[in-house]
Amino acid sequence: MEKKPDHCRVEDALGILVGKWKPVILLYLLQEGTKRFSELKRNMPGITQKMLTKQLRELEEEDIIERVVYPQVPPKVEYSMTEYGRSLEPILEAMHEWGTRHTEHKMKKQIQVKSSS
Amino acid sequence: MEKKPDHCRVEDALGILVGKWKPVILLYLLQEGTKRFSELKRNMPGITQKMLTKQLRELEEEDIIERVVYPQVPPKVEYSMTEYGRSLEPILEAMHEWGTRHTEHKMKKQIQVKSSS
DNA sequence: CGGAATCCACGCCGATACTG
DNA sequence: CAGTATCGGCGTGGATTCCG
Q1: Which parts of chain B register pLDDT below 70?
Q2: B82-88 — which CB contacts under 8 Å span 24+ positions?
Q3: Whole-model pTM?
Q4: pLDDT by residue (tens digit) across A11-28?
Q5: Handedness of CA A41, A43, A48, A50 (dihedral sign)
Q6: Chain-chain contact of A23 with B12 (C-beta, under 8 angstroms)
C-alpha cells in the first residue's frame, strides 16, 4: 500500500480525541460498556454537566458513541460505544502505553537536570 | 499484563500531538529526515514563523525532535526527529489510517442525509 | 535566515442558575 | 435525572513588526 500523507488525516483522528474529557469518557465506556449520564458524571470528578453533555454530543455526532433516551420520568439516557467507535481502541491503547513510557522518560530527564545543577 | 488505566496516560501522548501544525511537522520530518527551518516553512503553506518556531520548541522540549544551530551568517538551523521521537511513528500512522477511513465514513453519512431530505 | 515581541480574535472550558 | 442558557477567564493561534 502506497503511503501518501500529502493530505494528513492524522488531524481527523486527533480532532475526535481532543477535548478535555473525551479520552476518559471513551476509555470508561470501552471498559464498562453501557452507562447512564449520571454514572459517567459520577465517575469523572470535576466535570460539569455542561461539559459532559457537550463532549458526549460531539462524540455522538461522529458516530463514536450511541445515545439512547428512555421516554420516562425521571429521564434515563444511556451511552455506549458504537461498533465503529471501538475501532479507536487500539489507538487509545497505543497512546496510553506511549504516554506511560513518556512519563518515565520525563522523570529521568528531571533527575539529570537536578544532578547537573 | 494488567490493564490499569485508572491514571489515563492517553492525555500525555495527546498533549504532544496537539497543536495545529505538529502532526504535519512530525510526518514531514519522519519522511524527509533532517530539514532546515526555511524548508519546513516552505513546505507548510499558511504557517507563520511564530507558530513554526513555537511548535518546534514545544516538540524539542519533549525530546521528540532535535534542534541543531550552526553558528554562521546567515544562520542555519536544522531539525530532525530524535530516536525517541520516532517511537511516535506507529501511533501517527495508525491515526492517519483511522482518519482516512473516518473521512470515508462521514461521506457515506452525508449521502444518507441528502437522500432522506 | 531564523527568530523574538506585541496585539488581538476566537473558541474552549468552568461556574452558576434554571427547566421538563 | 438529564439536560439548556448565560457570563466570563484564559490559552491558542494569526498578523504584523523589529532584530542579530
Answers
A1: 1-6, 117
A2: B84/A105, B85/B26, B85/B59, B86/B30, B87/A98, B87/A101, B88/A98, B88/B13, B88/B16, B88/B17, B88/B26, B88/B64
A3: 0.91
A4: 999 999 999 999 999 999
A5: negative
A6: no
Residue B94 sits at the chain A interface (C-beta within 8 Å): yes
Q: What is the pLDDT of residues A40-66, one digit of tens each?
A: 999 999 999 999 999 999 999 999 999
B23: closest CA of chain A, how far (Å): 7
C-alpha cell at A83: 461498533
A33 touches chain B (CB under 8 A): no
Q: Which amino acid is at B115?
A: S
| CATH code for the part of the protein at B5-85 | 1.10.10.10
